[in-house]
Design a protein that fits this description.
Layout: E1 12-15, H1 19-30, E2 39-42, H2 47-57, E3 60-62, H3 68-73, E4 77-80, H4 84-94, E5 103-106, H5 113-120, E6 126-130, E7 140-146, H6 152-163, E8 166-170, H7 176-184, H8 186-203, H9 208-229, H10 233-239, H11 246-256, H12 259-285
Parallel strand pairs: 1-2, 1-4, 2-3, 4-5, 5-6, 7-8
Antiparallel strand pairs: 6-7
Length: 286
């Protein structure tokens, strides 16, 4: 999907100021999709964290419990980015502050649209999203599910928000867990593969810097080849795998370790764990 560059003029409040909130804010501001002065970031007590975000991005900040309700009440778009353990209390307090038109965008893993609405005590328009941290450099991959209360304009806001920091995939809510296993946690699998490639080079006598440069460029080039050629990864792999050659020997070694099925199992386990965490979160709330 092409990135959408339309400006968002609505004020946006990030209720929570952790790594994911920062990744999205960084991407939005770098792409000039939202003016820094239209973004407010809230947390409960960490002044140093908020001051750092204000210094880096020029956003408004607050951890004043007396001021935050007024900020939230007057914000047309609220991004839920607090820790899951803090969500229940925060959402119960948030519900009475909302108008029917307030758009809620959740990046809280495991918290369903139904649970969010139950905690708010109202059928609020909600977009449940699963972004990844590559959003901070405009190369994120975000899955989004919508509640039926969403208007066309609100959908467009959400699409613009996340389209500005990467690609967007609209899915039914029950598919978000498997999306988590592929794209949400997926960068970590690639980083782990890169760690192993770099370690192999170092053990064979290359310098850490040489291994880093070679590995980063190789992974970057491979992803771009898939993107630009439109060919399937399997077809591109076949092109560089000569019969009885060195690449085939490497692939055979990976196959001995059941690499392909292990990756599939890892994605499935990630999705399963996401469901478990969501169920535990729901049980803890109720």
């Amino acid at each position: 999907m092409s990135q959408q560059q339309a400006m968002i003029t609505e004020a946006i409040t990030f209720y929570g100021a952790g790594a994911m909130a920062e990744a999205i804010v960084k991407g939005l501001i770098s792409k000039s999709v939202v003016q820094p002065g239209d973004i407010t970031m809230l947390n409960r007590s960490n002044s140093r964290r908020l001051e750092e975000l204000q210094r880096l991005y020029g956003v408004k900040i607050s951890n004043d419990a007396d001021v935050q309700p007024d900020i939230l009440q007057n914000s047309p778009v609220i991004v839920l980015a607090m820790k899951p353990k803090d969500a229940a209390e925060a959402l119960r307090n948030l519900g009475p502050l909302l108008s029917d038109e307030t758009l809620i965008v959740s990046v809280i893993a495991g918290l369903t649209i139904r649970t969010i609405q139950d905690l708010l005590g109202r059928k609020q328009p909600i977009a449940r999203t699963m972004p990844n941290t590559s959003s901070s450099i405009g190369l994120g991959a975000t899955g989004i599910a919508y509640s039926k209360e969403m208007s066309d304009r609100q959908r467009q806001i959400v699409m613009t928000l996340f389209g500005a920091v990467g690609t967007v995939t609209n899915v039914e809510e029950e598919k978000l867990e498997i999306l988590t296993g592929i794209s949400g946690s997926g960068p970590a699998y690639i980083y782990y593969m890169m760690e192993a490639m770099m370690a192999a080079g170092i053990r064979s006598g290359l310098s850490p810097q040489q291994c880093r440069e070679l590995t980063v460029q190789t992974v970057l080039g491979a992803a771009r080849m898939v993107q630009l050629t439109g060919e399937e990864p399997s077809a591109l792999r076949a092109k560089v795998t000569s019969p009885n050659g060195s690449t085939q020997a490497a692939i055979e070694t990976l196959d001995k370790g059941d690499f392909f099925e292990t990756v599939i199992a890892a994605v499935a386990r990630c999705a399963e764990r996401s469901k478990e965490m969501g169920a535990a979160l729901k049980e803890g709330i109720y």
